[in-house]
Structures are given as C-alpha cells and as structure tokens.
Amino acid sequence: MPAKLSVNLNAVALLRNRRDLPWPSVVGLGRAALAAGAAGLTVHPRPDQRHIRFSDLADLRALIDDEFPQAEFNIEGFPSEDFLALVEKHQPEQVTLVPDDPAQATSDHGWDFPGKTAFLAPIVARLKASGMRVSLFADPDPLGYEQAKATGADRIELYTGPYGATHDDPKAAERELARLSRAAAVARELGLGVNAGHDLTVDNLPALVRAIPDLLEVSIGHGLTADALMYGMPATVARYRAALGH
Ligand SMILES: CC(=O)[C@@H](O)[C@H](O)COP(=O)(O)O
Ligand SMILES: NCC(=O)COP(=O)(O)O
C-alpha cells in the first residue's frame, strides 16, 4: 500500500497570520486537501503560536469528524505539559513527539533515544492510554532505535531534512537515501512503523518511496504549500499522491 499523505497546514497558517483576517483559511485549505484525497492533516503548534494557533485545533478536529471521518489528525510537538493538555483535549489519531526547543526556527533533529528513554516512556504510555498512536521524530541513525521501541511508541518519523537539502546534488541524495533505507529496515525489524517528513517535495518523493517500500505516512507542508500557491491545493494533492504511487 502506498504511503499515506498527511498535509501539514503550518505554512497556510503562517500566511494567514500576516494580517488580522481569517484568510487564507486553514480549515478551508484543509478541507480542499482532504477532498482531493489527502489521508490526513498535520499541524505543529509551536508555543509562540507563530503559525498554527491553539484555537485552530478544535476547528480542524471538527472538520475531520464532521466531513472526513476516515481521515487522521496528526499533531506534532515537544511534549511539554501544555502540549500534552492540548492533544488530550483534541484527541488526534496520531501524536508525533519532536525534541524541539521553543525558540527553534524549525525541527532539525530527532530524539536522543538512549538519553531520553526515561523521559519519553511515561509520556508515550499516557498518550496511548488516551487512545492516540504515538510516533517519535528520529534521525536516520538506527543506534538508539531499540530504546525508541522500549518507550512503547508505535512508530518513528524519519527526519528527512538532510535528504531534502540534497535537491541539487544527486550523489548526496543517494547517500541520504541509503541512510534512510537502512534506518527504516532496523525500525521495521524492531516492530516500529515508519513515517517520514521534513522538506519532502513532489520531486524527491518517488526516490524516497522506492528506498522505503513500507513507508506508512509522509507529512508535508512547506513544499506542498509552495506548490499549492502555483497550482491550487486540489491539483497539488493529486500530484503528491501520484508521486507516492497512489
Ligand atoms: C517535525 C517536522 O519536521 C515538522 O513539523 C516541521 O518541524 C514543521 O514545523 P515548522 O512548520 O514550524 O517549520
Ligand atoms: N513532519 C513534517 C511535516 O509535517 C512537514 O514538514 P515540511 O514539509 O513543512 O518540511
């Protein structure tokens, strides 16, 4: 089965927040993405609410529940007590835990699993007890995946930023793909599902899904939103689905 496409709406929210006006509509573009065949929506509410506002979460939850009940909501973030309260309130199907400092511009590394197993394990247990699937943001370095598994998480999300950065260097892209492929194989052997995200594009997706044939989900925001400005959201989702082999 091809990897599912979850459309990240952070960049839409960033554009909306330039003015004290409700457009572009985060819910409207989420609706357009789901109507065009996206399997889910992703948001990464940051503590300063610079893009997704905490008030967006109820609207997106209602969009999925009322109009697209098969779709999944994925909320990403650092598991502070405030973040955990947010996800417990809005009950996404999946929570992706990311080791981001509040001041960080964007996500740029995965968890240090050996150092953070004791921190993550009770959080994973708490979220799973509430019925949410838990995924952990991970560098494509399988040393430490045993500890990732030991936290009780269901999946990892492979950090693909370094792969995305090789867009003008095919040899470097091959090297990054080999790392991602090896890391995914170790995760799979340990019984962890594999998602991927960060700086994925319609151009770099086909090689990624060839390298990780059992990839479960990609979450894509920045590149997809740039394409949506050019082609419109429905056509863009169709292009990304085709790149995934749907
Ligand atoms: C975990 C991850 O890779 C994405 O959530 C990414 O961090 C998007 O966040 P920004 O949209 O704030 O850059
Ligand atoms: N988890 C990655 C994500 O949601 C989107 O990342 P990007 O496509 O905005 O880099």
TrEMBL record:
Which residues of this protein are catalytic? 44 (proton acceptor), 76 (proton acceptor), 198 (proton donor)
Main localization, broad class: cytoplasm
Binding positions (3-amino-2-oxopropyl phosphate): 8, 19, 199, 221-222
Q: Pathway listed for it?
A: Cofactor biosynthesis; pyridoxine 5'-phosphate biosynthesis; pyridoxine 5'-phosphate from D-erythrose 4-phosphate: step 5/5
Question: What Enzyme Commission number does this protein have?
Answer: 2.6.99.2
User: Which InterPro entries does the record cross-reference, listed alphabetically?
Assistant: Aldolase_TIM (IPR013785), PyrdxlP_synth_PdxJ (IPR004569), Pyridoxine-5'_phos_synth (IPR036130)
Q: Which Gene3D superfamilies match?
A: Aldolase class I
The record's subcellular location field reads: Cytoplasm
Residue positions annotated to bind 1-deoxy-D-xylulose 5-phosphate are: 46, 51, 106
Which GO molecular function entries does the Swiss-Prot or TrEMBL record give?
pyridoxine 5'-phosphate synthase activity
Catalysis: reaction(s): 3-amino-2-oxopropyl phosphate + 1-deoxy-D-xylulose 5-phosphate = pyridoxine 5'-phosphate + phosphate + 2 H2O + H(+)
Coiled-coil segments on the chain, per record: none
Site label Transition state stabilizer, positions: 157
Q: What class of enzyme is it?
A: transferase
Q: Which UniProt keywords apply?
A: Cytoplasm, Pyridoxine biosynthesis, Transferase
Question: Subunit composition?
Answer: Homooctamer; tetramer of dimers.
What is the stated purpose of this protein?
Catalyzes the complicated ring closure reaction between the two acyclic compounds 1-deoxy-D-xylulose-5-phosphate (DXP) and 3-amino-2-oxopropyl phosphate (1-amino-acetone-3-phosphate or AAP) to form pyridoxine 5'-phosphate (PNP) and inorganic phosphate.
Q: Which family does it belong to?
A: Belongs to the PNP synthase family.
Q: What is this protein called?
A: Pyridoxine 5'-phosphate synthase
Q: Which organism is it from?
A: Daeguia caeni
Q: Which gene encodes it?
A: pdxJ
